[in-house]
Amino acid sequence: MSPRILGRAGAYLVLLAGAVVSLVPFYWMAVAATHDTADLFRSPPPFMPGGALMDNLSRLQSEHHFGRVVANSLGVAVVYTVLSSLISAMCGYGLAKYRFRGRGVLLGVVLATMMIPMQVLLVPLFQMMANLGWTDTYQAVILPFLANAFGIFLMRQAFLAFPDELIESARIDGAGDLRIFYQVVLPGVRPQLGALVIFTFTSQWNSFIWPLLMLNTEEKFTVPIALNQMIGLSHVDYSGLMLGSFAATLPIMVVFFVFQRQFVAGLLGGAVKG
Amino acid sequence: MHTNRMKRTRRSVLLAGAIAAAVAVSGCAAGGSSSKKAAPSLTAGSAADIKGDVTVWSWDTAATALKRLAPEFEKQHPGTKINVVDIGYDNAYDKITVGLKSGKGLPDVTTVEGPRFQSFLGSFPNGFYDLSTLAGKYKDQFNQAAWKTATDEKGRTLGLPWDSGPVGVFYRRDLFQKAGVDPNSINTWDDYVKAGEQVKAKTGTKFISLDPAEDNTFSMMLQQQGQGLFKDGKVAVNTPQAVKAMTVLKQLSDKGLVDWARGWDANVSSTKTGKSATTPQAVWWGGTLTGEMKEMSGKWGVFPLPAFEQGGVRTSNNGGSLLTVTSQTKNPKTAWAFTEFMLANTANQVSMLKNEGLFPAFLPALKDPFIARPDPYYGGQAVNKVFADLSSSVPPIEYTKDGAKARELVWTAFAGVALRGKDPKATLDSTAKQIAAATGRQTAG
Amino acid sequence: MAALQTEPAKLESVPVADAPRPRRRRFSLTHWWFTGPATVLFVAFFAYPLAASLYQSFTADQDGATVFVGLRQYRRMFQDPVLAESLVNTALLLVIQVPVMIGLALVLAGVLNASWLRFRGGWRLVYFLPAVTTLVAYSVVFRVLLKTDGGMVNQLLDGIGIGAVDWLNNATWARISLVLSITWRWTGYNAVILLAGLQAIGREQYEAASIDGAGAVTTFVRVIVPQLRPVILFCSITSTIGTLQLFDENYVLTRGGPDNATMTPVLYLYKVGFDQMDFGYAAAIAWVVVLLIGLISLIQFRFLGRGSR
Q: Nearest CB to A236: which of B85, B105, B264?
């Protein structure tokens, strides 16, 4: 066998081992979702699927209106992802490719909002929303975090690597700034854009503490809040939790599969731009 | 194009506008605004005052109970609407704390656990309605330890106790029998440790499951001796009583009788899989047994908590919650009427014990025949009766706003003594000093 | 903070970015089209909270009123053993966990990017999944896995004759559990970012390197890694921020115990603020955390920004 084949076989083996480590917790989550909560306290805990999946599912629906909760979460996450990704990409581009007074300040602010622990911003932010009369609304869930420092920083770093000559030549061809951005620059960073969408969606989908603080009617609750309802004082619905959590990763998987194609598309973009 | 100056002016205007908008939105809300107002107090109103909407926050089975009984209240008081929100227990206090601190966003009525309510009262003395005039008449009808959790240091009543957590020892009948231990012979903690050794020698099973990070057994043993973490405002975690309690826990650990189980789920799992033969715990633990361990029916029994000396107090308290009317409510009279309807009401309290397993702090409810009913899960023992009898002897204890801080350090002390073999007296002395330093208090020990 | 604001000038020395700039746009307003929306949102939603939390760090709650106490909350920190311990724990994580994780992520991204790899999408998803678990599920699953008595990992270790480990109850092992669980959760996440960066580097660069006869590993280290520097910088800074703000993992696994062995500054300030309702002190700790993150990020900007060329 050639060293190359051996190397690849080795790589596959390592990859496989890592995959098992990554997946074992998910496997157990899936298994737990098919058991009665009482069953999960056995020792050793069950390793094979049980027969309580339908029971758990119907309890999730009847006690926590899981269908509605998922729909709420989807709505919030999609709106947030579209707006926030666009704003991040634009701001990242502005920071990477324009020189202007106050750029350092803006970058500093972006980084500072990442650095300050969320926990101490909750009370003042909550006061603002209450003064606006926005408690129990989705705009209070979405708007404050729409400008996402992480996304802006990610895109700034991506745009830094984008060649200035391409922008300049498009400009010579008479393209305006916005057109250059949408038609020349954005396609060039499609891989990062794909990653940005995945991260933005994931962070909003899993966002818990802020929606919990803002939302006050059960009809408006999102998935993480509904999961939190299953943790009681002297009873925790573990099988419901596991099923709900497992189900909650499915939309993320879909988004991941759709947008990771952008990673591959980026290859073509690279060829075109080169 | 524009001149440089114009551009800058325009930009400044834009920025200034945005800042002005932000300031307007944030209003004058710098700091905990509402907490500066004095606590409103509530006096009796007429039936006509009972109208409109009331929102109640709760969690878990308590929320279930509220949702179940609210329509009855609405029927008795036409024109009212009770809106119960299950906010989940795990992060409920984050939501309530933010509401208290920002002076906004709280519901009319909320559920709070007793000790937590005490620390809220310490930090937000004006966050809740003073119910003294209206609730005062019920004082003698409630479990006094629970009543204390709803009362502040000035003696004002700011909530109505709901359920309580009188403590006993849940034990495995089968293991005790196999080891030849008679639960009725366990009168003191010394007896308890000896029984543990015997059970372990005969059955190989450990005696008690404890949490290495957040265990409340020590606090339970303190309350049993009539004290909390503070006494007369002084730090009391190194009193002779405290040292006695910690020494018992150290003995249990040193003799290998402790099964360490981190977190609620691990604890339940330990019990279900028979890792430990007893659980000194509050009455609500029974709900976990019958809920998650149906197959263990007949194997469990309950005896009163062992005393520190012959004839000493045989119980303590762990848990229990109350309903309180927040000072942010616009409809306090209806809020109180609903609170009263739920809690100072024998029929409702009994029905919540039957349906949701909430053990009443309202003593008249404990006289209901349902309490004395033998329970097949406990081999026919009337366990609710055991707890009901213990209920009135739970010692009330003093709370301060620094309870959470002290509890944190006490957990650490417990881990040091039980897991790392440190000396109880020396460890508690140093913990007392740490708490004193952190809270600006003196030590009592 | 002041130091950071001078940073962008330095950043221009990042290799890929130092192409000549379109000078004539220097004082143009067009950047507002791009940075405007985010700027307005930041000012609208963060100016007040940031200012309020800074102000709060100079106050204390006394008998239901908030009073100004100057630097008292900051002075308290010097006599706080728990905070000191939490900083030591964080330093350990920064020195050990972050580099290991970024290294692993880089290798993983390299392999996931290899042209011969089959089912790439599947592999990527598998490695990304740990980062998307909800926190509640995470906590339950890890406690089931790491339970000392009858936990899955210990059963496995028992099975191969190593013997059980006291994962969450012993100070050293609790720290190791924490490191493992953070690495489990975030390696794939960083690999996805690095992978996106790799994909943005044109295929022709690899080909050029291959024509030169460089082996795969050499190509990766010599050609690809230097080009990835802005992305690696991004991963390092976000991971550093994540570590200095570590909360989720130790909150769900150990609550900072046993005996504060896994306490971190943010978990501590959460307890100080939300359990003990000592908001002034919590805010002061938060701003010290910001200062620390700022300093460390600055060092990273310098080191990775223009370092090894």
A: B264
